[in-house]
Structures are given as C-alpha cells and as structure tokens.
From TrEMBL:
InterPro entries: SopA-like_central (IPR025726). This is SopA family protein. Residues 57-188 form the E3 ubiquitin ligase SopA-like central domain.
Length: 290
C-alpha cells in the first residue's frame, strides 16, 4: 500500500522501506496535552523504530523534536529520562543540540574531570566510558591533548563486558590510529604491530602510543598488558622494558632512565609519563625503601 500523505500519532517503522520516505512530526497535539510525557515518549519510540539505514532521518527527527521542546521551554518532565536512555547513543548523541539538551551541564562536568586527570591513573565507570567515547568521537582534537587519558579509556573499554562499549571504543581507536597525524607513527613501529589490520584486539596484542607531558617530547610504545602491569604493578614488574622513541616527529629509539621517565622531579611539574609516577614511586619505596 502506498500513500502520498498520512497522519499518524504513533507508529512502528522497524520494517518499513525508507528509500523515498519523507517523515515529519505534527506537534499540534503538544499544546494543552494532559499526558505530555506519554505523548513525547511515543514520538521518541516511533523515531527509534526507524531502521538503521535511515540514520540521517532518525537524527533529523530527533533534533526537530528537541528544538520544539526548547522553543516551548519544556524541561524537567518525566520523558527526559527516557529520552536520555534512547538518545544517548548514535546517531543521536553525535548532534550537539541533542547532547546539550539531554546532558545539560554534563559536558562541562566531564571536561573538568578530564582536565583534572589528564596526567593521572584513571579507573572509568560504565557511564564515564560511554560519555568520553562519545566526547572523543565528537571532537577528535581532544585526543592528542589528553592522550594518556584517552589510551587508558580505550584500554579499559576494550576490556569491558559491555559489547557496545567495546565496539564503540574499537571503532574510535581505529579511526585515531589511521588518522594522518598518527598512522605514520604506527608505520614506523610496524614490527611491533601484530594485529594492526585485524578486527579483534587481544590483551597481549593491543599496541598503544603514549605521548609524554612535554611538547614534542618522547613517546612510549606499550602493549595493553604492559600498560596494565605498570599501572597496577607488583614486585615483579619490570620498569626497564619500555620502548621509548625520541618524539612523535622523530621515531628514533632512545634510552632514558626510570627517574627521567617517571619522576616528577626530573621534568618540571610533571614527569614525562606521569600516569605511572604514583605506581612507580610506590613500588620503588616498597622494594628499596627510597
């Protein structure tokens, strides 16, 4: 059955053909609606039933819904929680209008957290993983500036039991390592990359590049397992088995002492790789009492 025009209040578009579908939402029922939460929830549900091949349409409809709610200054309603649950995922969350509406103030809160911990060891909870993966997806310029924070996020997300988090983290990481600025670094250390072109990463095969706290300073190449061991050391952790290169623009192997790499006293306010400073210092005190 084909229609030139049809007006519906609710619907399920799961199996519809979207190739020539033009869909708009009539908001006339929003005024004076006694069941506003139910009305908006039905619209949210209807939008989300559109198939994945209509990602652009889904996003456009979601943005128009949010814009209508903003124009009418409709806030603090029960439907917001359902909207957050649905629109916190792609394709919706990529749009800044949607993100600012459902996570009002949260971007600033999370950005403050990232600034405070950009050179620290971080243990992410599930909500933080979801938010920061989305944040880096939206603004990849943040990755290099917060490289140590980003690498810890990716490593922990790839260890997550949540398949969606793992898939999103892997997609983001692949985009980063294939970018024009970063892919040459991986080409330089190609001998270490055993699974660069595979679809799956394993704990032993993840290869990460950590940028130091110094501008154009040394870079460290570590596997996921080495990263985990150094952030959670035991008395047997080998702090000398790191691959250090002169800088991201001169990938020449160099030797630097542990003190130079991990001691904050050796390089200004921060050590070259300050995410390891606390664990290195604790292990050093425990082992030799320094």
């Amino acid at each position: 059955v084909m229609f030139d025009h049809v007006r519906i209040s609710t619907g399920n578009f799961k199996d519809c053909i979207t190739e020539q579908l033009e869909l708009t939402i009539d908001y006339s029922d929003i005024f004076g609606n006694e069941d506003l939460d139910g009305y908006i929830n039905n619209i949210i549900k209807m939008i989300d039933t559109l198939p994945d091949n209509a990602m652009i349409l889904k996003s456009v409809l979601a943005v128009k819904l949010v814009m209508q709610l903003k124009i009418l200054n409709i806030v603090n309603k029960n439907f917001i929680e359902n909207m957050k649950k649905t629109f916190s995922h792609c394709p919706y969350i990529k749009d800044p209008i949607i993100r600012s509406y459902i996570h009002s103030g949260e971007d600033n809160k999370f950005d403050d957290f990232m600034r405070q911990h950009r050179f620290s060891k971080v243990d992410f909870d599930t909500q933080q993983m979801i938010h920061f993966i989305n944040r880096f997806n939206m603004n990849k310029g943040l990755i290099d500036k917060n490289n140590n924070f980003f690498i810890q996020l990716i490593d922990q997300a790839l260890r997550s039991t949540d398949d969606m988090i793992k898939a999103n983290a892997w997609y983001l990481y692949k985009e980063w390592i294939r970018s024009d600025d970063v892919s040459p670094l991986f080409i330089e250390i190609e001998d270490n990359l055993r699974t660069f072109n595979t679809n799956e990463l394993t704990r032993k095969d993840n290869i990460f590049i950590l940028f130091s706290s110094a501008d154009d300073g040394p870079v460290m190449v570590v596997s996921s397992q080495r990263l985990h061991d150094m952030l959670n050391p035991t008395k047997d952790t080998n702090w000398n088995s790191t691959c250090i290169y002169k800088s991201r623009h001169k990938m020449l192997p160099i030797n630097l002492t542990q003190e130079t790499l991990f001691s904050s006293k050796s390089h200004g306010k921060y050590a070259l790789f300050p995410i390891f400073t606390a664990s290195w210092r604790a292990t050093r005190i425990k082992n030799i009492g320094i």
